[in-house]
Amino acid sequence: MATPIHVVDAFADTAFTGNPAAICVLHTAADPEWMQQVSAEMNLSETAFVVPSGDGFHLRWFTPTTEVDLCGHATLAAAHMLWERGDLDNASPAKFDTLSGRLTATRENGWIELDFPAEPATPVDIPVALADGLDSEPRWTGRNRWDYLVELDGEGVIRGLAPDFARLMALKTRGIIVTARAETSGIDFVSRFFAPRAGIDEDPVTGSAHCALGPFWADRLGRDRLEALQVSRRGGRLKIHRNGDRVGIAGQAVTVWSGTIHA
Q1: How would DSSP label each residue in 5-67?
Q2: CA 67 to CA 37: how far, in whole Å?
Q3: Under the phi-then-psi rule, with left for phi > 0, alpha for psi from -120 to 50, and beta for the rest, what region is 19?
Q4: Pairing of β 19-25 and β 46-53
Q5: Sequence-ordered list of residues with C-beta below 8 angstroms from that of 47, at least 6 positions apart, any chain
Q6: Choice among 33, 41, 46, 84 that is catalytic
Q7: Which domains does the chain have, with CATH numbers?
Q8: CB-based burial of residue 131 (10 Å sphere; 0-12 exposed, 13-18 middle, 19+ buried)?
């Protein structure tokens, strides 16, 4: 079997920045075990599998070790690839049916905006493993159904953080979002995302984390449109729009390479 596969840098305007995702556009649904094997072989934070379905596409996301319920950067990369390949007309939205329901992507002026559900975090006491793993005093700690959200003292603290991933592995959660008000000009807030239990110590740019970050900072800054920067080593810029119980998460994307799976 020969299957096309593409690698797209999402939340990036130049190659080798942002968050790389592998994208397989399939004619028919594939066996989940095979999809997991492909994802392990690609060894990127996410590999997305797209299959035409009804008026849109069925979309699934896999890390190298497990399937996940929601992934922002691989959704953005999948939409980018559908337009680039000609599977979708340039003016048509990308509609995806997923484990998190119907998601859509539209593009305008070189930016792709994802329409995702808001997932606000509620305050919790910080667990010992989280406090020890971050070794930093939080200003605020919360949790939603996927992740812990921790506000720290400033952008410098976020950039300099060196987590103890063995301690964070003990947390029974998808991941840990750390965030602070930005000091970089033109940016409202910064973040990083750690997910050792999903096989990803640090994710370069995490669209789905902004389902929590969007409501958090919109409430604190008093406006619904925000500029965000995820300050991993690769880094990525996002535009955030809180819209009721939804969050618009916008970024750019660049195709890096295309190939074929012979297995």
Answers
A1: EEEEEES-SSTTSSEEEEEEE-SS---HHHHHHHHHHHTSSEEEEEEEETTEEEEEEE-SS-E
A2: 11
A3: beta
A4: parallel
A5: 21, 22, 23, 24, 35, 38, 39, 61, 62, 74
A6: 46
A7: 2-102+253-262 (3.10.310.10), 122-244 (3.10.310.10)
A8: middle
* Closest residue by Cα to residue 207 from 251, 168, 256: 251
Please compute, for residue 139, the number of CA atoms within 13 A of its CA located in the half-sphere on the CB side: 11
Q: Give just the sign of the alpha carbon dihedral 71, 93, 107, 259.
A: positive
* CB contact at 8 A, 150 and 192: no
Is 46 among the catalytic positions? yes
Cβ atoms of 75 and 103 within 8 Å: the answer is: yes
Query: Is this model's pTM higher than 0.90 or not?
Result: yes
Tokens 């998808």 belong to residue: 174
The per-residue pLDDT for range 197-243, each reduced to its tens digit, is 888 899 999 999 999 999 999 999 999 999 999 999 999 999 999 99
Q: Which residue has tokens 């606000």?
A: 120
pLDDT in tens, 74-95: 999 999 999 999 999 989 999 9
Distance of CA 32 to the CA centre of its chain: 21
Contact 55, 99 (CB under 8 A): no
Count the neighbouring beta carbons within 10 Å of the beta carbon of residue 116.
23
